[in-house]
Amino acid sequence: MTTAHLKGREERRGQLQATRTRRNTTTRRTNPRSTAARWIALRATALVVLLAAWQTVTAAELWPRVLVPSPADVWHAFTEGMTTGYSGHTLTEHLAVSLRRIGIGTGYATLVGVPLGLVIGAVKPVAVVLEPAVTFLRTLPPLAYLSLLVIWFGIDESPKIWLLVIAALPPIAAATAAAVRDVPGELVEAARALGAGPVSLLLSVRLPAALPEILTGIRIAVGVAYTSVVAAETINGVPGIGGMIRDAQRYNQTAVVVVGILAIGFSGIVLDAALKGVERIAVPWRGRT
Amino acid sequence: MPSSDVQETAVGADIALAGVTVRYGSPKAPVTAVEDVTLSVGAGEFVVLVGPSGCGKTTLLRLVAGFERAAAGEVDVRRAAGVVFQQPRLFPWRTVGGNIAFALARHGVPRDRRATRVEELLELVGLGGTARRRTWELSGGQQQRVAIARALAGEPRILLMDEPFAALDALTRERLQEEVRSLADATGTTVLFVTHSAEEAVLLGSRVLVMAAGPGRIVAEVPVGLDRGAGAGAVAGLRALPEFSRLRGELAGVMREAAGR
Question: How far apart are CA A254 and CA A66, in angstroms?
Fold first, then answer.
């Protein structure tokens, strides 16, 4: 295994040198590193094209500036958001509050969703009852139950957290249940042969074997919480990025709305990448067996 | 099902099957995997089951392991059987030592004594000092050794091995054959070993049971009366004996005949 590994590495190095010296015309095998560089270049080009198109459209004033702000307007709104802020808080503060809500929401959802998924995956009668409930919850748009949560919990922090928990729970529970069910029978058999009872089978074999999928479920749940946070912050959402967007909408500050959207989107990309990193560290065996 | 077969079952045998039938599939369209098998393996015996693929030898082993249920007949197995499969089936989320510690924990070995036991077991299979390694860092042969150490962790009376060396290269296979045979001799463990290779059967077994397919059943028994020396090289030494070649040829002939039926 290791020798094959080394050989592969040598091959790659060889290819790299070949491309550097540009003598590699006959064998057209793609080099992973140069391919990655090419994709990044393509991405950058697309971004530049998008910005240029945006600038052209706003310069031509096809639509009023109030509706479609120019890149410069958005940049200005961004710097102002970072310094003086909007609705009494800087952009960073808004984002931090929203991220905290997302964190607490998915945290609770994980605490409940993983055990729930374990039980659904392992106990058939529980699955029969709870699985449709999870699916039902999953299909509901958060705005649909926001009103109910406001009636029950008021307009402070708790309805927002509740909304995010309800939004983030189903993907975690569903991923856990599916993963626990799909644990290779060979491993379960091996554990049984070693004397594992039902409890240790569930906690020491099925749970760790399902960990990669559970982490993916959590990553998806964070994404769902991200898309739901603006809904959660429609009522009394300041500070919070969703609340900021709502406020800006009320005063037709289109540039601020765009800044809010971009802030959510970019922080989402960063967070997703971070979670992927956590997955790699927590599940080093993924793809190796 | 002839009930008289039960009498053949030796008293005090570690594994005793009497008139056992195993069926797969739905009750409406059952497939008989094994039919009316009677066998007994005495304490400390090394018995090999050989036969072509699909003859039900693995099913029989799985029945003894408790993974299958007999549709008819009696199964009597002294508990605490360790199982080694064709694939190592190690838990990738645990280290090499962790895999063995898992088995130790299931057998009630207290936490503070597990580390010492893990090291002992790893040394037994020639992998001392690898406890902290990741399972996938080991070669296929090393992984299979860990699987054997893990199966031995509960100090089983019986070791069930289902073509454990089939996926290994020839050199590793020979070395592991050697080790397993001397381990069995040293610990007095009863072994039921499944293989499709006549050579492996004669090398390892004290007694070889030949199976035929459609439905799976035992058709012949070949005693292997080879003079095994103890210690290192005991198995390799057998290959040089003319007696070994004769037995291997004889067994291959019996297997061919069984397959042709």
Answer: 6
CA distance A108 to A268: 19
Instruction: Kindly indicate whether the ipTM for this predicted assembly is greater than 0.90, answering yes or no.
Output: no
Q: For residue A287, tell me if it sits in a domain.
A: no
Specify if A228 maps to a domain.
yes
Total domains present in chain A = 2
DSSP bridge partners of A86: A89
**Interface residue A195 vs chain B (CB under 8 A):** yes
Using DSSP, state whether B40 is helix, strand or coil: strand
Residue A202 contacts B where some CB pair is shorter than 8 Å: no
**Helix, strand or coil, per DSSP, at residue B209:** strand
Domain boundary among A69, A99, A116: A69
State the best of B86, B93, B96 to mutate against chain A, taking most chain A CBs within 10 Å: B93
Residues of A with CB below 8 A from B85's CB? 186, 189-190
Q: Which domain holds residue B229?
A: 39-70+158-261
Nearest-CA distance A242 → chain B (Å): 40
* A196 touches B: beta carbon within 8 Å: yes
What is the total count of domains within chain B? 2
What the block records as the tokens of B132 is 């902290």
DSSP output for A139-177: HS-HHHHHHHHHHHHTTSHHHHHHHHHHHHHHHHHHHHH
> Hey, what amino acid is at A27?
T
Q: How many Å apart are CA A95 and CA A270, to the nearest integer?
A: 13
Q: What is the pLDDT along chain A (289 residues), one digit of tens a residue?
A: 444 454 444 445 444 444 444 444 445 566 778 889 999 999 999 999 999 999 999 999 888 888 899 999 999 999 999 999 888 999 999 999 999 999 999 999 999 999 999 999 999 999 999 999 999 999 998 888 999 999 999 999 999 999 999 999 999 999 999 999 999 999 999 999 998 999 999 999 999 999 999 999 999 999 999 889 988 898 898 899 999 999 999 998 999 999 999 999 999 999 999 999 998 898 988 877 6
Look at residue A245 and tell me if it is in a domain: yes
Contacts of B65 in chain A (CB under 8 A): 193
Say whether A288 and B136 touch across the interface (CB within 8 A).
yes
Q: How far apart are CA A52 and CA A46, in angstroms?
A: 10
Q: Residue A187's closest chain B neighbor by CA?
A: B89
Measure CB to CB from residue A289 to each of B65, B105, B136 and give the nearest one.
B136
Is B188 within 8 Å of chain A by CB? no
Dihedral angle, C-alpha A236, A242, A247, A249, nearest 10 °: -140
Closest alpha carbon to A115 in A184, A206, A197:
A206
Nearest C-alpha in B relative to A285: B92
